[in-house]
């Protein structure tokens, strides 16, 4: 899925045994997970990093590419954020995220493309603002020539205020991390330690280096 608003693309086939008077909330919409390998890989990487970062906090749920229903009884009102961080809810795996059964996501990150950037900056920004998502970030790994690659918004008195991006960096008060545009990709930085949160590949490389030292020693 590419995080677009889902209004008329729901899969209508109901599971066997599903009552006619029940509201059916599909778990998939037939849309691709992401437009390119770059978008998909970055989305998966960011979710993985944040899951490890919040692993010791039982009430922080990190997910992405999941159908997020925000109006009870109206399955057409749905969106699929690329990265979503929800505070105050458990880490149990979910098939969908229903707002009336959960809490408002605290942070959403969309991995934009040339075809979705406008919608990310308009329709989805307005939706997340209305829902009360505290922070919203957009990153375009395709680096458009005439538009910024990284945008950030924070809710203040019910409205989004644009966040200042300095040297490709913007601080998330909710995550307590910096989002950093390296001019190659998007990274999370631990400000207190002044270092990037490691990717899975970087952790593997560190482990291999330690094992090599032990072997040589």
CATH topology category name = tt1808, chain A
Just give the CATH class: Alpha Beta
Strand residue percentage: 15-25%
Based on CA inertia axes, which overall geometry fits? globular
- Helix share bin: 10-25%
Straight-line distance between termini: 48 Å
Strand tally: 14
Textual characterization of the structure:
The chain is of the alpha+beta class. The protein has a single domain, classed as tt1808, chain A. 22% of the residues lie in helices and 25% in strands. The protein has 4 helices and 14 strands. The chain has a 6-stranded mixed β-sheet. Strands 1-4-3-6 form a 4-stranded mixed β-sheet, with no helix packed on it. A 4-stranded antiparallel β-sheet has the order 11-12-13-14, covered by helices on one side.
Key features of this structure:
tt1808, chain A; six-stranded mixed beta sheet; 217 residues; single chain; alpha+beta; globular; four-stranded mixed beta sheet; 25% strand; 4 helices
Gist?
The protein is an alpha+beta fold and 217 residues long.
């Amino acid at each position: 899925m590419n995080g677009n608003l889902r209004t008329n693309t729901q899969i209508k086939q109901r599971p066997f045994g599903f009552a006619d008077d029940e509201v059916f909330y599909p778990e998939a919409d037939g849309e691709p997970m992401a437009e390119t390998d770059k978008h998909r890989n970055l989305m998966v990487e960011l979710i993985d990093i944040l899951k490890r970062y919040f692993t010791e906090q039982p009430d922080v749920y990190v997910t992405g590419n999941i159908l997020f229903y925000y109006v009870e009884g109206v399955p057409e009102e749905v969106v699929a954020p690329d990265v979503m961080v929800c505070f105050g809810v458990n880490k149990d795996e979910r098939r969908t995220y229903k707002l009336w059964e959960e809490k408002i996501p605290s942070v959403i990150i969309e991995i934009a493309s040339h075809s979705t950037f406008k919608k990310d900056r308009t329709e989805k920004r307005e939706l997340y603002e209305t829902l009360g998502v505290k922070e919203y970030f957009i990153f375009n790994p395709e680096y458009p020539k005439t538009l910024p690659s990284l945008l950030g918004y924070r809710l203040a008195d019910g409205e989004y205020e644009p966040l200042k991006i300095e040297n490709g960096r913007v601080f998330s008060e909710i995550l307590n991390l910096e989002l950093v545009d390296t001019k190659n990709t998007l990274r999370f930085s631990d400000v207190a330690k002044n270092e990037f949160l490691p990717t899975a590949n970087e952790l593997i490389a560190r482990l291999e280096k330690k094992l090599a030292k032990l072997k040589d020693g």
